[in-house]
Amino acid sequence: MAAARRARKPRRRRWLKWFAAAVVLALVALGVAISVALRRAEPMLRAEIVQRLAARFHARVELDSFHVSLMSGLWAEGKGLRIWPPAQVAGVTVPGAKGAGAAGAPRPLIQLAEFRFHVPLSYKPGKPIGISVVELNGLNVDVPPRPHFTHAATAGGAEPEKEDSAGPMGLRFQLEKIECKDARLTLETSKPGKLPLEFAIAHMNLTHLSAGGSMHFDAELTNPRPKGTIVTSGSLGPWVVEDPGETPVAGQYRFEHADLSVFKGIAGILNSTGKYQGVLRGMTVDGQTDTPDFRLTHFGTALPLHTVFHATVDGTNGDTWLQPVVATLGQSHFTAEGEVVGVPAGVLPNGAARPGGHEISLKVNVDRGRMEDFLRLASKNGTPLLTGALTLRTTLEIPPGAEPVHDRLKLNGSFVLEDAKFTSAKFQNDVGELSLRGQGLPKDAKNGGAEVRSAMESDFTMAGGVITLPDVKYTVPGAEIGLKGTYSVDGGALEFRGTAKTQATVSQMVGGWKGALLKPADRFFKKDGAGTEVPIHIGGTQGDPKFGIDFDRMKHTSPQMPGEPQ
């Protein structure tokens, strides 16, 4: 019996070896069979993807490669996907489109470097196959300008895709999420001389996906100008095949660390939050901005700037219509409405070259302003020439160019300044002395007198960095001054001439025994109800202003007094 058992053991071992070998061979055969089946299925799956995308976008679709493998389910990977605009299918090209060839052929609407997704092996008849995530890398979406053609409902004979419709293999798929990295969105424009807008998207997730419906997105992208990070979420779609630029979009955003120095002449770090809705080509945006260090780079004095705005934005070129902006600069409150639109390079009426870029055209209303805020912004040392309560209305234009903003800025308006005071102690003392003498209080003027606040109003224009004031009316108690002249923003040079009218006569202004001697001359300086009228001149600079009587003009305009030599 023992011998028989010993004889059976080698046979069992041989049988186990044969069984293991058979299993291995079966597994190898199964693997080969699956591999062969997958290789045979790849063209059909590839055709399934191409057919569905062609039906969805009504366009020609190209896919360079597609492979599948088994690893905890079925993994699929594709490379070199291109979806062409419907315009090309319809035989219409868009001349001048970015990337156009010699014949003006447009770029693909969508280009994708590679994609990857996983499909579980379980399958229930009559139920769609769930795909939890599709991973995209290197996505480029190039939205063409508004097409000048009518596209048919289908392209290449493909019917529009229906929700959960079955493909050629009788399979239905249900996609839950798309994860996208390293994407770029380009919004083309058909306007001559204008460049398209490009947005670099670091990552984006799409959920709530359905054929022919909208989807939810979360994205982080880089804004081109001013450069900064935008974190946004919202809904996109349904995709408008005939004109992708008309695809609906809505959401909210957070714009962080936008460097304004990309715009010539200004600087500061801007942060903004808000919401938007509309279509890719045109959105309505409501939001607010905070720039704690807004400044003109030529001068460098920073002031906090806060705005609340309602705007319409053309996404293809960045043209913006402000309707309106409510802003606070320092302590000053004002509103602005108008447009910021791109203009092509060209030639000015005088024959000079006109650079291309964005042109700003606004109507500004300062209803609760402080003069020192605006003058401080245009001051290198931060010291304004004047302080006071300001109301102002003006048009504002800033054409594109390489010059600093203050040299390109054009203003045309009027202002009223109340409770005004000069920051120069000497100049303010001169004004105070004029006020007291104008009231016939020469003794108080000699003793320094009380602090005097004044008022000022005028029309004004600004061009080439020079403010022109043609009809300044400056009043202090006891005197009224009419002036016209210029103020240079860069350097603060003052050049004003005008006339001072006082309530008191010349003799009353001088007082004492000298005033008594001047009584015969009073009648020669009286005019239009004023006790005295004398020409004055204001010169010097903002930091060192000069104020006095213009004796040269007085000699040429004053009537000859009795006994005065010819």
Description:
This protein is 20% helix and 46% strand. The relative contact order is 0.05. The model is unreliable at 27-34, 87-103, 148-161 and 559-566 (pLDDT under 50). The chain is of the alpha+beta class and 566 residues long. The protein has a domain at 424-557.
The helix content, as a percent range, equals: 10-25%
- Outline type: rod-shaped
What is the number of helical segments per DSSP (H or I, 4+ residues)? 10
Structural class of the helices, strands and pairings?
A: alpha+beta
- How many individual β-strands? 28
**First-residue to last-residue Cα separation:** 164 Å
Query: What fraction strand?
Result: over 45%
Compute the average pLDDT: 77
Low-confidence stretches: 27-34, 87-103, 148-161, 559-566
Summarize the structure.
The chain has 566 residues and is of the alpha+beta class.
Key attributes of the depicted protein:
566 residues, alpha+beta, 24-stranded mixed sheet, 20% helix
